[in-house]
Design a protein that fits this description.
heterodimer, A: Rossmann fold, Rossmann fold, 2 domains, 5-stranded parallel sheet, 14 helices, globular, B: 15 helices
């Protein structure tokens, strides 16, 4: 890989001259954040933009490369078309690193655009740091050398979630409710595959796909879930689609279990409130009571913004950029991408690895349950008096899933 | 059984909310011949106004005051703008209301932001209105409010409780009360008689010495005020955010067209119909494939995998009202209870 890049050195001459080796110290690295700041998903977007800005500030002080990070937020209205315009705008501002995560539909469009751009504009490459889009295709059939995923994809999360569900004998009938786009389809598909492999006796009593960020009233879905007799619901819903779902579940008196990806995300803790104790589960690569430096960051974030920090991949991203830029002794995206490729580093959940095969971060996953705070688990999102308490931890070697990616390194 | 009851009530409450909106729209249309594109914007203004006022003076006073303010704004818009363009015909009128909807949207985003606001219903409306209890032995019964201990499982098996939220009950009550008073005003008062007369024979009414433009303004204010009332209730029951006008706006046009332009009874019927369709469609998992198979057709494996044939009714639920609109326009262009053609 490094060799191939070395061959292209003459092509990159200009870029290399602009960023001479050893001299990355003190440079400013601009990262364009392309996510929703309007519409139903805006609360999630603005929380994450704050997270990026907060950690840009933190990591500018401490990163081993000695660079300054700057985050430029661009509203994409959760639309793939708007995101491509945002990408253009970012490139015009000389940005070489972009990050996005809300909506695999958007991420897919951005990966395509970045691939094409990098192919046509050698010397002006862009690196896509995916913080939360979890469609497994991005690190399998559609994998790209320029895309790095810091969240855990649906194949990993569903593997872990169903490993836990396997041992719960009280789960007999499962309902799948998901958003009607790539992410929701993948959640439903992997849930069915995993359950039929691990617990063939579990019945899938219903399956629904609803429009993304459009539904205001989930009461009809709750009535349907109740009528199906399901004791558990698996959902990859996020933002308002999860908050309004659990709100309708509370109002409609549904008391089955929820297996979710994003219980800790804006809106849902408030919608759950004291309800759902011990019945709502989340599979994620972090939780609210990680301890150590993470607790201090969370506390400071809450103090400053009166909001909860839940996108741990932001930390993964800044840590890895710092390491990779120090290793590459440059902020040039081509060199940094080469350094990120296979990078092993320490993050808040222990050692993580940006797997060479597919650029999927290999990391620990936690299955947590919504319950009252206690001494060991004091952090309460949205001041609900409740928290997400870990019930099972999946080390990277367990949470890892195989990939079919045939990564093409740049010629 | 409780599924049918709860779903029907959900559908009816949504339908009645639509009626609160479409009644004003259809009144304005029948009077001025103008389709008010900004009608849903007044719904949104009502919701945001109600949100701000309920923070200052509490929910109940806001429920009265916000629709009054919305209605006053509507009347002022009619007086200052719509009346001026009226002389140029219907298209400029349409364009003015169209432009207004954009201005309101941008203003709302400037004042209240692009993010949904936290518009909570008052404590009185936060619990369930009543709870259906399905007991394995005693069968179906119901109690007012929350059922509490009655919902814990008995020795005979699981007790299923289905609460019906008070906010939705309140939507229904308000809409029915509004419908009653609207009927009373239109049919039983002198003002109502003049309004009805002005609907069909404005020149005659004017010749009798009534101020017809002022009646227009009143009706416009009344219609937008009703939209504002629906906004306060709808905003606190569902979500108050800048896209709420666009979401509901297209549906109320469907209601007005399906019911018959200018027909209040038609709007009522169409509102309930669409409310029920939207609620029940979600529950139906049948697809064209199932239909064909039920008819005894055998399909090839490739046809079975066809993504369009496999679409279930619940997946296409959001487009059903528009499908209904197209069908009505083809087969009964005057609408269900409309009187004029086309």
């Amino acid at each position: 890989m490094m060799k191939r890049i070395a061959w292209t050195a003459p092509l990159m001459f200009a870029a290399v001259m602009a960023t001479p080796a050893w001299a990355q110290k003190g440079e400013t690295v601009k990262i364009a954040w392309i996510d929703p700041l309007s519409g139903l998903m805006a609360p999630v977007g603005s929380n994450q933009l704050k997270s990026f800005q907060f950690f840009a500030e933190q990591f500018s002080k401490t990163n081993p490369a000695g660079v300054k990070f700057e985050v430029i937020g661009i509203d994409n209205k959760l639309s793939p078309a708007e995101s491509l315009n945002a990408l253009k705008a970012a490139m015009d501002q000389g940005v070489r690193y972009i990050t996005q995560g809300n909506g695999s539909s958007v991420a897919g469009a951005l990966i395509d655009a970045v691939n094409k751009h990098n192919e046509r504009n050698p010397g002006k490459e862009i690196v896509f740091l995916n913080h939360s889009a979890v469609d497994p295709d991005f690190t399998n059939s559609k994998c790209s050398y320029w895309h790095f995923r810091y969240d855990a994809d649906t194949s990993m999360k569903m593997e872990a979630m169903t490993t836990y569900m396997k041992d719960r004998q009280d789960i007999k009938k499962v309902y799948l409710l998901n958003q009607n786009y790539s992410h929701g389809h993948q959640v439903a598909k992997f849930a069915k595959e995993n359950l039929s492999r691990k617990r063939p006796d579990i019945q899938i009593v219903g399956e629904d796909l609803h429009p993304l960020a459009q539904v205001r009233d989930f009461a009809p879905y709750i009535a349907k879930i109740k009528a199906s007799g399901a004791d558990s619901v698996i959902t990859g819903n996020w933002g308002s689609d999860l908050a309004l779902l659990v709100k309708a579940a509370n109002e409609g008196g549904y008391n089955g279990k929820f297996f979710t990806y994003y219980t800790g995300v804006t809106g849902t803790p408030t919608a759950l409130g004291q309800g759902g104790d011990g019945r709502v589960f989340q599979i994620s690569y972090q939780h609210y009571n990680m301890g150590g430096q993470m607790d201090k960051w969370q506390a400071e974030f809450k103090k400053r913004f009166n909001d909860d920090f839940y996108t741990g991949s932001v930390i993964h991203i800044f840590s890895s950029l710092g390491e990779a830029m120090a290793k590459a002794k440059s902020t040039d995206p081509v060199k940094v991408a080469a350094a990120l490729h296979g990078l092993k580093y320490q993050s808040f959940s222990g050692e993580v690895e940006m797997r060479k095969l597919d650029h999927q971060l290999q990391q620990t996953l936690y299955l947590t349950v919504w319950t009252k705070t206690d001494k060991q688990h004091p952090y309460s999102p949205e001041n609900t008096g409740m928290t997400l308490k870990p019930v099972k931890t999946f080390e990277p070697y367990i949470s890892s899933t195989p990939t079919s990616c045939q990564m093409k390194a740049p010629a | 059984m409780e599924f049918v009851i709860i779903s029907t009530l959900n559908g009816l409450s949504y339908g009645l909310l639509l009626f609160m909106l479409s009644s004003g729209l259809t009144l304005i249309f029948s009077m001025m011949g103008v389709l008010n594109f900004a009608h849903a914007s007044f719904y949104m203004l009502g919701a945001y106004g109600g949100y701000t006022l309920s923070g200052l003076i509490g929910f109940w006073p806001a429920l009265v005051l916000a629709p009054l303010i919305t209605g006053a704004l509507g009347a002022a818009f009619e007086r200052a703008s719509l009346r001026k363009v009226h002389v140029y015909g219907h298209v400029p009128e349409l364009l003015v209301t169209f432009g207004l909807s954009y201005i309101v949207l941008e203003l709302v985003q400037l004042i209240w932001g692009r993010v949904a606001v936290e518009f909570q219903p008052p404590a009185l409306l936060q619990g369930p209105m009543f709870t259906l209890i399905h007991h394995p032995v005693e069968g179906l019964s119901w109690v007012w409010g929350a059922a509490g201990a009655l919902c814990t499982d008995s020795s005979a098996g699981a007790v299923v409780c289905s609460p019906f939220p008070a906010t939705r009950g309140f939507v229904m009550l308000t809409a029915l009360a509004m419908m009653g008073s609207l009927w009373w005003v239109l049919a039983r008062t002198r003002t109502g008689l003049i309004i009805q007369a002005a609907l069909t024979h404005p020149e005659m009414v004017e010749a009798l010495g009534h101020n017809v433009p002022r009646i227009f303004m009143l009706v416009f204010g009344l219609g937008t005020g009703l939209a504002g009332l629906a906004g306060v209730i709808g905003g606190s029951t569902f979500v108050t955010e800048p896209a709420m006008a666009a979401t509901v706006g297209s549906v109320i046009f469907v209601v007005v067209v399906v019911g018959g332009m200018g027909s209040l009874a038609g709007a009522f019927l169409a509102s309930l119909l669409i409310g029920l369709i939207q609620t029940y469609a979600v529950a139906v998992d049948a697809s064209v494939l199932d239909l064909l198979e039920a008819l005894g057709m055998t399909l090839s494996a490739a046809a079975r995998e066809n993504s369009i044939i496999k679409l279930t009714v619940s997946q296409v639920a959001p487009i059903l009202p528009y499908l209904l609109l197209v069908l009505i326009l083809i087969f009964r262009p005057k609408g269900l209870l409309g009187t004029r053609e086309g």
